[in-house]
Amino acid sequence: MLPSLSDVPVVPPGREAPDAYAISAEFYDILQADLDRARVRRFYGRAVRGARRGVLDVGAGTGRVTFMCLARSRAPVFAVEPTRCMRSLLMTRLAALPVDVRTRVTVYPYRLDEAALREVADVGICHNTVACLRPTARRALWPAVADALVPGGVFLVQLPPERLPDGEATHVLPAQTMGRHEYGGRMVMSADADRIRTRFDYWVRGESGVLRAYTETFWMWPASRAEVLGELAQCGFVPLPERADPAVLAVRLGRR
């Protein structure tokens, strides 16, 4: 018997993150999935294969890391994604998986500190997320990661840009065709005081020209490898040998 709606506790609105990706969610996978999927395998695949207790995916987005973890490990996956529109895409994709696979993944609709996970994983991953956190929020994340990992657990984090860009830098996202429409976009980065303005321009073209066009802006905060490592060290993490790709920092949680 289904419960009455009056019997269901309602999550306070303050715990729901604003939909910062309201526009980008439509274009995120079609324009960036192939490149990012290969990057995720290269950055984290080896560590995930060794997971036994569980894998923590901080900032799961539409599930690039989550799905790689489900494919490469039998360990449970804890996917943390506070943004509703990205989480909705993740849930839709997970719902299409066989039951025995999706029972291994739990999705948390909060920030990691609100999810209150304790020693659930021996591998933690934070991909394409830290750059978009204000320095205070970034520093607040590390204790929650330490709580979620078992002693000796490995944490892999994709580092933010180390410095502000010189001038304006534009990266064109390769156009993709779906039916009669072509989807395209570009990312434009520029310095703004102590942060990086990251503007995404998206468009959809048909036979008659541009059918739709959108712009969405995000902010990123630069931090050096040494700075991030110093913050993590205060939470009990020790550095592991540098990876082949300098974009990723690998640390291990010391024994408590």
Automatic annotation (TrEMBL):
It holds the Pfam family Methyltransf_12. InterPro entries: Methyltransf_12, SAM-dependent_MTases_sf. GO terms for biological process: methylation. Residues 56-155 form the Methyltransferase type domain. The keyword Methyltransferase applies. GO terms for molecular function: methyltransferase activity. Keywords: Methyltransferase, Transferase. The keyword Cell division does not apply. CDD domains: AdoMet_MTases. This is Class I SAM-dependent methyltransferase. The lineage of its organism: Bacteria, Bacillati, Actinomycetota, Actinomycetes, Kitasatosporales.
